């Protein structure tokens, strides 16, 4: 069957909170606050790093990349979430849904890659501080950023076409207020083995390997820190990793949870799927700027100076 002869719905219907569709307007306020914090906090970090010459260092360049990916993720979900919860406009055109799905998954993978780059930054800073400046040059940082971006877009480029080749005739109602690949492929009335295998391959070969290398880097960091004689120096070294560890946890724990629920929790209530997916997409962009602003005094000072100016 040709790609363009397959039947697709003209539009999908998005879903807010299952069972609360008629009274979900009360969620509009908290969602607006979350988006304001996510967009405002991350843009503030970007401006702080850009405007403060003392923050022109590898650690803060990677933080800027993380903030950029959080802003992009928030902007990718904002239109449909706002329309669903605030305007009760649930329809989304099929091709627009494919585009949003691609962007959400791409920026999510980009964030995973950036977290891996940040763990490498902490590894070099603690385990080999004398070579820090020579290893993490501006060219290397730019190269890592481009590699992370290229990996995200090339790895996920097939996803829209894998969905487009499937006849979708079971339903046109999605489980969330945005488009995700696992949610869309379940609506197909055909064999979805290829989609499922490719999705698992992407998950393991990118997110899985990123997490493995992050854990490995912290094993090496911990071994190096424990070799430091002074207790105060050990705590000081570990303290530089706290923000990054928090960012890793708030990204990977919900991601593992939502992947597990989608693949093995077929009989779980729908609100569990919705809750896990919303935590996965909304919580990291909101908490990352708060964590880094609270734990990094250089960022705090720069933001305060920015407001004074």
UniProtKB/TrEMBL annotation:
Keywords: Cell membrane, G-protein coupled receptor, Membrane, Olfaction, Receptor, Sensory transduction, Transducer, Transmembrane, Transmembrane helix. Belongs to the G-protein coupled receptor 1 family. Gene3D superfamilies: Rhodopsin 7-helix transmembrane proteins. It comes from the Eukaryota. This is Olfactory receptor. Residues 41-292 form the G-protein coupled receptors family 1 profile domain. InterPro entries: GPCR_Rhodpsn, GPCR_Rhodpsn_7TM, Olfact_rcpt, OR51/52/56-like. PROSITE patterns: G_PROTEIN_RECEP_F1_1, G_PROTEIN_RECEP_F1_2. One of its GO terms (biological process) is cellular response to lipid. CDD domains: 7tmA_OR51-like. The chain crosses the membrane at residues 26-49, 61-82, 102-120, 132-153, 197-221, 242-265, 271-292. It comes from Monodelphis domestica. It is found in: Cell membrane; Membrane. GO terms for cellular component: plasma membrane. The keyword Cell membrane applies. It is a multi-pass membrane protein. GO terms for molecular function: G protein-coupled receptor activity; olfactory receptor activity. Its main location: membrane. Pfam families: 7tm_4. SUPFAM superfamilies: Family A G protein-coupled receptor-like. Coiled coil: none annotated.
